[in-house]
Amino acid sequence: MKDVAARAGVGLKTVSRVVNGEAGVSSDTERRVQEAITSLGFRRNDSARVLRKGTTASIGLVLEDLADPFYSPLSRAVEEVARAHGALLINGSSAEDPEREQELALALCARRVDGLVIVPASDDHRYLEPEIAAGVATVFVDRPPGRIAADLVLSENFEGARAGVAHLIAHGHRRIGFIGDRPGIHTAEERLRGYRTAMDQAGLPVADSWVAPGSTDSERVRADAARMLDGADGTEPVTAFFSGNNRVTVTLVRVLAAPERRDRPVALVGFDDFELADLLSPPVTVVAQDPADLGRSAAELLFRRLDGADDEPRTVSRPTTLIARGSGEIPPHER
Amino acid sequence: MKDVAARAGVGLKTVSRVVNGEAGVSSDTERRVQEAITSLGFRRNDSARVLRKGTTASIGLVLEDLADPFYSPLSRAVEEVARAHGALLINGSSAEDPEREQELALALCARRVDGLVIVPASDDHRYLEPEIAAGVATVFVDRPPGRIAADLVLSENFEGARAGVAHLIAHGHRRIGFIGDRPGIHTAEERLRGYRTAMDQAGLPVADSWVAPGSTDSERVRADAARMLDGADGTEPVTAFFSGNNRVTVTLVRVLAAPERRDRPVALVGFDDFELADLLSPPVTVVAQDPADLGRSAAELLFRRLDGADDEPRTVSRPTTLIARGSGEIPPHER
DNA sequence: CTGAAAGCGCTTACAG
DNA sequence: CTGAAAGCGCTTACAG
Q1: In chain A, which residues have their Cβ closer than 8 Å to the Cβ of B105?
Q2: Do B167 and B23 belong together in one domain?
Q3: Is the same domain home to A84 and A7?
Q4: Domain assignment of residue B49, yes or no
Q5: Are residue A62 and residue A149 in the same domain, yes or no?
Q6: A235 contacts A210 by C-beta, under 8 angstroms
Q7: A226 touching B, CB under 8 A?
Q8: Pairing state of beta strands A321-323 and A285-288?
């Protein structure tokens, strides 16, 4: 900038005015400065600008996995809102590891992002208290924060799961297996609670062996599914599954499509919609969330804070939709 | 930092040493500084650090769409390599718009990212010349840069497409439709060239109406597919499709699965693998690329430059794999 | 082992 | 319409 000023024969401030499109520069001076800028290949250094202004026009997003088909539209939606507000998006994957979440979130704060959207992997976010006090706007999405209060966008996990399981019950199922995500993950617990409530409201008992929370690793899911289908532990085999998420559903579809399982069709309702679900045979009935909508809502809450809103933290709840396609309407087949 | 120094009764430089874990601080002093840091809730301001050091430990990634299932694993792979090198990832979607690509890339340069990975939407990257001259390492992936030389990672688009079409020919097809991405996109052109070469090598003529490059919009693809299937323009209907990418393949699967099309099965080979392709009926034969591998390779080339390599720009070529699953092995059905 | 001074490249507040 | 000085929060180069 100094070089530009020297070359154009003007002061630093005048260059700054031209670069930022401020008023109060004669058109002649402006032309000289522009010329100097292009011939020197000058580009404003935003780091210096940030240091002086205190605002970075960038926001951070921490989620589980950028490549997960549930999270990637969420991320894209956050990006679009950020773009509309002139901000860039820095994002990172926590890989469901609380330490990595913290490391990422704090690294983003050290870069002085204006705000943070977090899909938490951790259940204790007190580490963010100094950052929030220092003015970093923070919004949680998909799962609530732990031990701090903050804006939050959530799907109706409990109600969605309850409705999905009630749908299976309405189609005659009495022995329904639940394969979900790890306990400790809020969505997993809410969906499990929805399952138990639906069973309870229908007066159906739940055998311990029908409930299998755990990792979404396909080997784990296959093992638990096989156990429930073959009626281990002396209980009767399940005639239907309710799947706690996207990743689990895909594995269950594979399990149920295996040739040796085809003679006894098993019903399936999955939480989360996914591409091509309608083209599988049978097409998969799901409780759909709208990940882009979750991302958009969270980003809008964030920019509301950045625009100065300082009322109490609010929680936004987004409904789910049961989409009946076939797999959830299969009647119970006994062996 | 000044406050911390005052509180601990030490100089600024000593605080800097503690914050950066440099040697040469007595353990007693270090403890006092650490205490001051935690009680003040101090966190180093990386913007200031960047300004002084000239390096940001962040890299930028510009691609078409963060939510596209082809690009999201690529993005995640870049993130992992960046993380291994202690860098954060800032990314943005160009939405296949050259202006938006330029705007994003230059915004990232203004933030002084150390390097840039770009999936180009534009065919002229001379706008990056001043940035590259100023030291921003730049690597292109999936498509080559326009009018500048730079490191590049590419799939074997031509050879993959040629092999995919040859596979259909080997299964008896003589009238094969090609539905691809827009002309001007390098991958689209290479794959079309592969199609033409395979047809040519087999001595098969190509009717104009069998070649339909264009947007991946599903309405466009449906219309072109219907035209080829119904044999408009006085030509015979095609008995097989070669699809130029992921998005097109998914639409074609839907077209071919329609009840009114089922009596005359049409073969399909798609470029790009996708989740659940093996569970569709028929399972979809694809020419698979490895997007995570592309991302990883590009990021590794980038960090190689950042570590000081200044040899000639290099091009890395990654092979594709033909995965025969069923849809590509359907024999020709005449009406 | 420790610290004072200068400077990274901008913007702010002010004066002319 | 224009510019000189101070300062944002760090690190570098140097001295003790």
Answers
A1: none
A2: no
A3: no
A4: no
A5: yes
A6: yes
A7: no
A8: antiparallel
Longest C-alpha distance within chain B, in Å? Answer: 90
Do residues A262 and A233 touch, judged by C-beta distance below 8 A?
A: no
Residues A147 and A66 grouped into a single domain:
yes
Nucleotides in C strand less than 7 A from protein CB: 1-13
Burial class (CB in 10 A: 0-12, 13-18, 19+), A210: buried
Tell me, what amino acid is at A220? R
In a domain, A88, yes or no: yes
Pairing of strands B267-271, B211-213: unpaired
* Contact predicate A289/A327, CB 8 Å: no
Range of the domain at A21: 2-44
In a domain, B329, yes or no: no
Structural domains of chain A, count: 3
Q: pLDDT, tens digit, for every residue of A232-252?
A: 778 899 999 999 999 999 999
Measured CA to CA, the distance from residue A209 to residue A190 in angstroms comes to: 19
| Residue A134: CATH number of its domain | 3.40.50.2300
Question: Which tokens go with A84?
Answer: 């509309």
Asked if residue A295 and residue A150 are part of one domain, the reply reads yes
Cβ of B76 and A67 within 8 Å?
yes
Helix (H, G, I), strand (E, B) or coil at B241: strand
B22 alpha-carbon distance from chain centroid: 39
B249 φ/ψ angles, rounded to the nearest 5 degrees: -55, -45
* Residue B46, nucleotide of least CA–C1' distance: D10
Q: What gap in Å lies between CA B189 and CA B204, rounded to an integer?
A: 20
Whether B182 and B269 share a structural domain: yes
- What is the spatial distance between Cα B287 and Cα B321, in angstroms, rounded to a whole number? 5
Q: Is the per-residue pLDDT at B256 higher than 90?
A: yes
**Residue A88 contacts residue A82 (beta carbons within 8 Å):** yes
- Amino acid found at B271: F
- The SS3 of residue A45 is coil
Question: Per-residue confidence at B335, pLDDT binned at 50, 70, 90?
Answer: low
Mutation target among B276, B280, B284 for the A interface, most CBs of A within 10 A: B276
Specify the DSSP element, H or E, that contains A321.
strand A321-323
Asked whether residue B209 falls in the same domain as residue B306, the answer is: no
Instruction: Check B89 against A88: CB less than 8 A apart.
Output: no
What three-state secondary structure class fits B214?
Answer: coil
pLDDT mean across residues, chain B: 94
pLDDT tens for residues A136-190? 999 999 999 999 999 999 999 999 999 999 999 999 999 999 999 999 899 999 9
Q: Using the structure, give the distance in angstroms from the CA atom of A4 to the C1' atom of D3, rounded to a whole number.
A: 15
Decide: A166 and A199 in contact? Cβ < 8 Å: no
With H, G, I as helix, E, B as strand and everything else as coil, classify residue B151: strand
Pair B228, B241 in one domain: yes
Q: Do the chains contact at A51 and B47, CB–CB below 8 Å?
A: yes
Q: What is the CATH number of the domain that holds B28?
A: 1.10.260.40
Helix H or strand E segment including B300: helix B291-306
> Is there a domain that residue B86 lies in?
yes
Contact with chain B for residue A21, Cβ under 8 A: no
